[in-house]
């Protein structure tokens, strides 16, 4: 079997041992979530759980199971001070925070509307550091992330990390349970002719997004002078993985239906980690008007307008907002 192991790659990159420890716990949690997702139909874990999360969204049994796996596995790490999860209303403090301790933000199961139809889902996470002893600030801008990553539970289970040295993709070997490096340097092509947006919301969009959509759907007869292709899986991790592999742009804009909530996707544990990964792979990440990694969150579950992907396309969409 080829490709160095996750631990080997992190050690060779000179990552501190307490960070490697935490990332190995996260990898273990992802392995366990992958197992539960695969066995979901057999264990009766599809359908609704009958409960709502803090954001008023219906929870699936696997949303809760994945969250419990992450909490149980990652609280093992001695330097982890706090957790922020999509499925937990409050910040969970594990200890009195000391300078250099870690903060873990995660969406335990992303794209969970796809579970019942056996399509790809994922986990998104982000690690930041406590600035000084006793500091309980978790509302930090995305540019302060130490590591951002996601796991994709597709035909293969993959772990993709941005940890200061570009973006690296690891594949889980079924059987040994080892993550091995299979995509050493993931880069997003600068140009693209593929976009991803939930077009059923067209009538609610603001003018710049409508204009973008009109331009790309006009194809070679329109102002862009070429045909575009569209994809929408409704699973952000699957969507972003496709974009990392072959380029593209992903949009979940502010619209008349989500404006009062600030958007659809959550900043701290969905959008900021993806923005760090995308920028580390050479792409762009904006709300349309601001760089996502510069935003200072106002609350742990804040939502935000999102445009991520191939640099020239993201820049073009930002220009339409000016
Ligand atoms: O159902 P919609 O409006 O197409 O939204 C799909 C988006 O919502 C999400 O499923 C939100 O994530 P959760 O499944 O964690 O709530 C994204 O993965 C996806 O891009
Ligand atoms: Mg999500
Ligand atoms: Mg989720």
TrEMBL record:
It is an enzyme of class 3 (hydrolase). The keyword Ion transport does not apply. Mg(2+) 2 binds at residues 107, 110, 270. GO terms for molecular function: fructose 1,6-bisphosphate 1-phosphatase activity. Binds 2 magnesium ions per subunit. InterPro entries: FBPase_C_dom (IPR044015), FBPase_class-1 (IPR000146), FBPase_N (IPR033391), FBPtase (IPR028343), Fructose_bisphosphatase_AS (IPR020548). Mg(2+) 1 binds at residues 86, 107, 109. Its cofactor is Mg(2+). Pathway: Carbohydrate biosynthesis; Calvin cycle. Its EC number is 3.1.3.11. Residues 17-183 form the Fructose-1-6-bisphosphatase class I N-terminal domain. Signal peptide: none annotated. Pfam families: FBPase, FBPase_C. It catalyses: beta-D-fructose 1,6-bisphosphate + H2O = beta-D-fructose 6-phosphate + phosphate. Keywords: Carbohydrate metabolism, Cytoplasm, Hydrolase, Magnesium, Metal-binding. Substrate binds at residues 110-113, 198. Belongs to the FBPase class 1 family. Homotetramer. HAMAP family: FBPase_class1. This is Fructose-1,6-bisphosphatase class 1. The gene is fbp.
């Amino acid at each position: 079997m080829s490709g160095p192991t996750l631990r080997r790659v992190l050690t060779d990159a000179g990552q501190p041992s307490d960070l490697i420890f935490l990332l190995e716990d996260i990898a273990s949690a992802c392995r366990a979530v992958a197992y539960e997702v695969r066995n979901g139909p057999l264990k009766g874990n599809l359908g609704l759980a009958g409960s709502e999360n803090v954001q008023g969204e219906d929870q699936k049994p696997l949303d809760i199971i994945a969250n419990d796996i992450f909490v149980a596995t990652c609280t093992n790490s001695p330097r982890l001070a706090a957790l922020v999860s999509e499925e937990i209303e409050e910040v969970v403090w594990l200890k009195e925070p000391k300078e250099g301790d870690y903060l873990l933000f995660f969406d335990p199961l992303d794209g969970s509307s796809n579970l019942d139809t056996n399509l790809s889902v994922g986990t998104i996470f982000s690690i930041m550091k406590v600035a000084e002893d006793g500091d309980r600030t978790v509302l930090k801008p995305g540019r302060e992330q130490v590591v951002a990553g996601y796991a994709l539970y597709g035909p293969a289970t993959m772990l993709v990390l941005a940890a200061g040295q570009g973006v690296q993709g690891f594949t889980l070997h079924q059987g040994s349970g080892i993550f091995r490096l299979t995509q050493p340097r993931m880069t997003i092509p600068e140009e693209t002719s593929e976009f991803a947006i939930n077009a059923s919301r067209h009538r609610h969009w603001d003018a710049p997004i409508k204009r973008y959509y009109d331009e790309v759907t006009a194809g070679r007869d329109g102002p862009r002078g070429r045909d575009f292709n569209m994809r929408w899986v409704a699973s952000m991790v699957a969507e972003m993985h496709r974009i990392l592999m072959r380029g593209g742009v992903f949009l979940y804009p502010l619209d008349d239906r989500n404006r009062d909530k600030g958007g659809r996707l959550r900043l701290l544990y969905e959008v900021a980690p993806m923005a760090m990964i995308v920028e580390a792979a050479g792409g762009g990440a904006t709300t349309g008007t601001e760089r996502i990694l510069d935003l200072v969150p106002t609350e742990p579950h804040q939502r935000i307008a999102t445009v991520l992907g191939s640099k020239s396309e993201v820049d073009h969409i930002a220009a339409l907002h000016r």
